[in-house]
Design goal:
By secondary structure, this protein is α+β, with helices and mostly antiparallel strands. The chain folds into two domains: about 190 residues, no CATH class; about 250 residues, 3-Layer(aba) Sandwich (Rossmann fold). The chain contains seven helices and 26 strands. Strands 14, 21, 22, 23, 24, 25 and 26 form a seven-stranded mixed sheet that branches. The chain has a five-stranded antiparallel sheet with strand order 1-2-3-4-5, covered by helices on one side. The termini are far apart. About 35% of the residues are buried. About 0% of the residues have low confidence.
């Protein structure tokens, strides 16, 4: 009898256990590799994002440098431009950027392209570094404090009152132990503030800047990613420190003070003496709320305009009074300090505000322009207002300046006319009362003062909005400013 053996196919328990272990191991290895790949991609993505944020910040800074007049290295210079100009309270000053006058909208440009309305950006942009806040990446954050801008790239807040802080980049490193940029020869020394290093050329027009930042990450060696980048560029805007604004006949004045880039000028009038007195009209006629009669010059003569009949004139986006005050503060800041100068090089100034009566910067007459007196002059200008509805009355101040050895140049600015103009004014001046005021001034200058050691008094005039340099070019048919500035070295300029 034959027995049949039945053979069964399959896996034993041991084989199944071994196969399962191999499968689990393969799955585990694959999962680990996938995790490593995903983590590597995340690190690469974070690193690229950090690199991009640094480069975007550098590009933004460089764009503002290109559109600037100059780069400011010292924080003290920010306040010297205007007492209202400040840096953020919390943070370490990096550098500042001084912007030129700006067209704030497309409408500021005339369709023909030859006319435009410029607004003065009152204070510089300030870049500073402060400790990061809770919602920012540690340890430090780069802050920009300055005018805001719209999506078209126009600055929209020229007034310092509307300046805001903007976070440019957080996560800037606290350590300065990284390889620094190499600055060009003849530039200033490299400055390092935490993770930011930079150097500026001697003209304050170009910069090389470097930033190092970190991004903390979990499960990453040393728990952070680092990135460093640098960029360089220069201002493409020429300014008064680069061009020479000197009148053709300025060589005739040996005592002319020198500012950076040339002679010192204010609203079209350059200084021809180191002893100068400024008289500014601070009456209500300079106030933005006072409406002036509108008109145009047609064939050399003034004609009224009825639509609108009355207007509040602005120059560079400012009222007449604000324009005079701001430009005079900038002008005085540029004048050389007396400290370290010889007696022949020192400047002596006086500022008189007149709204029918006079207020003087210095009660004892013109003073040497030291650093302290420059600050006093800026504070004096900041304290003025244009609220008194009384016309300018400059005659006594002009007369006293004619006889003063401390005044070599007298500059008067006004947008209105005195109640009694120079043509009919017959008050006594320099001991004379024959003829009208302007004739007395001219005769005394020509026959008396010009023959003395101090020489003739230069009287320059700045006529704002209305043209009082020529009688045919204003609504009142008077040339009172032109009359007192008719000497051979004197000028009357019209600013509108």
């Amino acid at each position: 009898m034959n027995l049949l053996k039945v053979k069964k196919n399959g896996f034993s328990i041991i084989e199944l256990i071994i196969a399962g272990s191999i499968s689990l191991t393969a799955i585990g290895v694959g999962y680990s590799l996938l995790q490593i790949a995903l983590k590597g991609n995340k690190i690469d993505e974070t690193q690229m994002g950090l690199n991009g944020r640094i480069n975007d910040t550098l590009d933004f800074i460089l764009d503002e440098v290109k559109a600037s007049k100059r780069i400011i290295e010292n924080e003290s210079e920010i306040n010297n431009i205007d007492n209202n100009c400040t840096s953020p309270n919390q943070g370490e000053f990096i550098f500042g950027i001084r912007l030129p006058d700006q067209a704030l909208a497309r409408s500021d440009y005339a369709p023909e392209g030859d006319l435009f309305n410029l607004n003065q950006i009152e204070c510089p942009i300030v870049y500073s570094l402060r400790p990061s806040l809770n919602n920012e990446k540690s340890p430090y954050t780069l802050i920009r404090y300055g005018p805001q801008y719209n999506e078209s790239g126009y600055y929209i807040s020229p007034s310092y009152l509307e300046f805001q802080e903007t976070v440019l980049l957080d996560g800037i490193t606290a350590s300065s132990k990284y390889k620094k940029i190499v600055c060009p020869n003849n530039w200033g020394e490299i400055k390092t503030i935490k993770g930011i290093s930079f150097c500026i050329d001697k003209f304050n027009k170009a910069i090389e800047i470097q930033i190092e930042a970190v991004d903390s990450q979990k499960n990453v060696q040393r728990n952070e990613l680092r990135s460093i980048a640098s960029i360089g560029g220069f201002s493409s805007i020429q300014d008064e420190t680069q061009i020479n604004i000197i009148p053709r006949n300025s060589d005739n004045f040996s005592n002319s003070p020198i500012c950076s880039g040339g002679n010192c000028c204010w609203i079209g009038i350059c200084l021809k003496s180191n002893k100068v007195t400024y008289l500014i009209d601070n009456s209500y006629y300079m106030n933005e709320d006072f409406l002036h009669q509108n008109g145009i010059i047609n064939s050399g003569n003034w004609q009224p305009v009825n639509n609108p009949e009355l207007i509040s004139p602005f120059i560079n986006g400012k009222s007449l009074f604000e324009y005079v005050i701001d430009t005079l503060k900038q002008h005085i800041n540029k004048l050389p300090n007396a400290n370290g100068l010889t007696n022949e090089e020192k400047i002596y100034i006086q500022i008189i505000a007149n709204n029918g009566s006079s207020i003087y910067l210095f009660d004892n007459g013109p003073q040497e322009l030291t650093s302290e007196n420059k600050i006093a002059a800026i504070s004096f200008l900041n304290s003025l207002n244009s609220e008194q509805l009384t016309a300018i009355n400059p005659w006594n101040d002009i007369c006293s300046s004619l006889e003063s050895e401390d005044v070599g140049q007298f500059i008067i600015s006004s947008a209105w006319k005195p109640d009694i103009d120079s043509a009919s004014n017959r008050q006594t001046c320099v001991g004379l009362n024959e003829g009208n005021f302007s004739d007395i001034v001219e005769n005394y200058n020509q026959f008396t003062r010009s023959k003395s050691a101090i020489g003739a008094l230069v009287i320059d005039s700045i006529s704002l909005f209305h043209n009082y340099c020529e009688s045919s070019k204003n609504a009142f048919n008077t040339k009172w400013l032109g009359s007192i500035s008719k000497g051979p070295e004197s000028y009357c300029v019209h600013i509108k």
